[in-house]
Amino acid sequence: MSIGDSQVRLCHLYPDHLNIYADRGNIAVLARRLEWRGLTLEITEAGLGDPIADDCHFYYLGGGQDRDQMLVAEDLAHKADPLRHAAEDGAVVLGVCGGYQLLGHGYTAADGQRMHGIGLLDLETTAGSSRLIGDVVLDVTLNGQSRTVVGYENHAGRTYLGGGCTPLGHLRRGHGNNGDDGCEGAVAGRRVGTYLHGPLLPKNPWLADTLLGWALDHAECPVELEPLDDDLERSAHAVAATRAGRKR
Ligand code: GLN
């Protein structure tokens, strides 16, 4: 396959309902970082009632308010089979905040309403009586590489992981999954969930490239992602880390 033919297919789930804090910016980052390497990202949007294909290389769910999340939860049950099939086949699945919660077994909101998740990640979420808000810094290890990841969180949910996944990272600053155990996010193979909005990927180019590397591998596209000039991204990362440090 020549580089010009190479293409990663991404399915953006619920862009109209799960896009709090401009979470769709993560997709712009994925697309640009591929373009800068002569590659392309083909994006399909799938909203309520839309069928989804099971042959995408990357599936993305952003965050949303509880009422939007409820609509999505009901619909997502109909998309669970193709999503599960794709994930088992090696596709990347990234969920942010509300999307992260729905990748787990379920979310019980503050009013007691239960939203079923699709169980792609072994975790359970229940709303607490306060919101966990602020800048976050965590240490993440993926593919044997360790980096600091920065972001912003704003959620009521308290998420606890089961034995089928591991935390995405360990907190230096912030509340993370539940404000209790020092962990943030979850990973199982190429399934990743996190509370970090902001969006997540512009300030964390290493994480963006790690996810893209997995998607390219799944697409059987043997391309090494050459380094980019990430000076601006590194500055944004440093500012976010410093700001988080000052807040405590
Ligand atoms: N409704 C969820 C919570 O508050 C998710 C919020 C979000 O996506 N920002 O926990």
- How many domains make up the 3D coordinates? 1
Assembly status? single chain
* Biggest β-sheet strands, sense, barrel: 6 strands, mixed
CATH topology: Rossmann fold
Could you tell me which ligands this complex binds, including any ions or cofactors?
A: glutamine
Our count of helices gives 5
CATH homology group: Class I glutamine amidotransferase (GATase) domain
Helix/strand order: EHEEHEHEEEEEEEEHH
Could you characterize the architecture of this molecule?
By secondary structure, the chain is α/β, with parallel strands linked by helices. The chain has one domain (3-246): Rossmann fold (3-Layer(aba) Sandwich), CATH 3.40.50.880. The chain is 29% helix and 32% strand. The chain contains five helices and twelve strands. The chain has helices spanning 25-35, 66-89, 98-103, 205-218, 231-246, and strands spanning 7-13, 40-46, 58-61, 92-96, 106-108, 114-116, 123-142, 145-161, 169-173, 183-184, 186-188, 191-194. A six-stranded mixed β-sheet has the order 2-1-3-4-12-11, sandwiched between helices. Strands 5, 6, 7, 8, 9 and 10 form a six-stranded mixed β-sheet that branches. A hairpin with a 2-residue loop joins strand 7 (123-142) and strand 8. The longest helix has 24 residues, at 66-89. It is globular. The protein starts with 6 loop residues before the first strand and ends with a helix. The mean pLDDT is 94. It binds glutamine. Residues 20, 63-64, 66, 69, 97-98, 154-157 line the site of glutamine.
